[in-house]
Amino acid sequence: MIERQLQPLLHELVGVVFAPTSALGDATGQIRPTGVQGVFHADARVLSRAELLVDDQELEGLTRGDVGPHGAHFVSLARWLGDPTPDPTVRVDRTRRATRNGLTEELRIRSTATVGVRATVSVDLGCDLAPIEVVKSGRATDALAASTGQPGTLTWTGTGITVTVTAPGADVLADRERATTPRLVWPVDLPPGGETVLRWQLAVDDPRAVVVGPAGEPEWSRPEVSADDRRLVRLLDRSLDDLRGLRLAETGAPGDVFLGAGVPWFLTLFGRDSLWAARMMLPLGTDLAAGTLRVLARRQGTRIDPTTGEAPGKILHELRRHEFALPENGLHLPPAYYGTVDATMLWVNLLHDAWRWGMPAVQIEPLLPHLEAALRWLGEHADPDGDGLVEYVDTTGRGLSNQGWKDSGDAVRFHDGTLATAPIVLAEVQGYAHEAAVNGAALLDAFGRPGADRWREHAAALVDRFRKSFWVDGRHGPQPALALDRDKRPVDSLTSNIGHLLGTGLLDRDEEAQVAHLLTTDTMAAGFGLRTMSSDDAGFSPLSYHCGSIWTHDTAIVLGGLARAGHRDAALGLADGLLSAAEAFDYRMPELYGGDDRALVNRPVPYPAACRPQAWAAAGAVLLLQAATGLYPDVPAGTVRLTPLAGPELGALHVDGLRVGGAPVTVTVDRTGEATITGLPTPLTPPLPTQRRPTTQPLPQ
After folding, report:
1. pTM for the whole thing?
2. Among 1-15, 209-223, 388-402, which is the least confidently predicted range?
3. How far does Cα 330 stand from its chain's mean position?
4. What crossing angle do the helices spanning 427-446 and 343-357 adopt, rounded to 10°?
5. What is the phi/psi pair of residue 104, to 5°?
6. Given CA atoms 98, 214, 364, 700 in this order, what sign does their dihedral have?
7. What gap in Å lies between CA 238 and CA 324, rounded to an integer?
8. pLDDT digits (tens, 9 = 90+) for 73-120
9. d(CA 302, CA 501)
10. Most exposed residue of 33, 256, 395, 434, measured as fewest CB within 10 angstroms of its CB?
11. CB within 8 A of 220, min separation 6: which ones?
């Protein structure tokens, strides 16, 4: 029997994050030397063990909870200590907080016993400095030997990283057999009813990290929300805490903030993820979008390089300190990797949408040369065979075989389960390309740059090509195919990808209505959100990464598209799925979860290796809030539209602190669906009160 190297499971682990630092441990607070448990800094594990013992015994865990946006609190018992009664009399509260460059722990030992308590408290530590890809692959690692210096201090060094643990008042055992499993020891002597507090902290010096934690407060507003459906309030609060912890900046440019993709595998710059998350966050301000656009513009491609996937004008996929290698999968990604087919169009669309929300011209104008370069990539490099459609293929055999957001190797399947062969032409990518061409033309016109007509013509031609190439007959009527394969055959599975076409302009009104119908069939929407693949397709598996699972951000994006297009019932169905899932996951939404039928499993099944927290999953809460308020501004055009989902089904909603044109605004929706907005900046003025129907009001110039 061949022994497999399996990716570690993490769905039951408890995480804290203050990017670029994160920590994962078990439900009792222990960080054990197994799987993906540990403290991570950027993309290295800087502590692989932190096990608390009292008298060399494990404590009995009772419960855990959150402590602010970056901490967790664990409550445990030492029942062999104190009074010999049924009630426990000695408890230990363990509070863990992530910091930008490390971690702190506070151990509070409390006694309500009538006798004195004497015990020895210890923490066993370990450090392997394993790269994140080694941890992800499940490969074994060796603990490093620690060195001692000042009293209560331990140090590990390697690969340019220095890790220091300081424990005031503790004895340090790190000689001989304890060199790789050093122990911190505190003797504790409590009087009746007494308590004591012990502390230790971890500090990381990592000069080679490519990302750093930015200073200051988050770039977005934190709105005050009251709602009949309290799940929406709880989801937004937890999501904004998680997003606060995921803020990053590139080393050397700490002022340009973006969101790291997710804990633990992707806490770095990811073009697609960071762009989508910033786009979802626009109702809270445009500063995050500006930082994300600038950091990616600085790394925009300038040359043809098949090894990295770079091309002139192309936007980066991911950034690491070193090669990201998973040899068992044949994957060897260079530190700066451009293997993404969609990030370049998403960059254009974020710039456009930020402009619509009121991003100042002084921030947009320096990015216009990058806009033009991105559009040139769309016209000159995105379509190698010249058929007018955007496609991808990994020519190296070492990169990602699939380069859309569903980037697992088996993501693109025909209805019969057969894998499609590259080059691949993805459906949603054609939508992004159409939207980017139209949006790019609008920006070029608005800022007096040439070339807009070319991109409007490009978009019009793409509509015709898509209509001729992608529509196939399915069980529920005509449907856009997932993709075209190497031979331009439609990949005829029914997937969530087609939901991303809503609002891109690639479909006409009747086609959008058919897509909405397809997405609300039981085969797609019978779970806690939108399945990535129909349960009728042979490749469907509810715990497949991209072929039947439910992704939080995917459901939110499609929900938003349905709401904007006026498909209210379909959008409300997905909203209920997300809110029900949020309740089951304690409102910290994972990257993805199982696509099981709600009638069979009454709570969402965790996907065991999903990132949590994850940027575009958390930002999906803001997109849901926007759909609930129905707020769609166009600051350059001087218009605001209000078409709320809130109302009879979702309940009343009041949101104070959304941002339009840099100004805080308030949106109120009553139980009948009537919406009002106040606080719009001059020359913007509110539209007429809106009740469940689209209304666009021109605003005075």
Report:
1. 0.96
2. 1-15
3. 25
4. 50
5. -125, 150
6. positive
7. 31
8. 999 999 999 999 999 999 999 999 999 999 999 999 999 999 999 999
9. 29
10. 395
11. 243, 281, 284, 285, 287, 288, 659
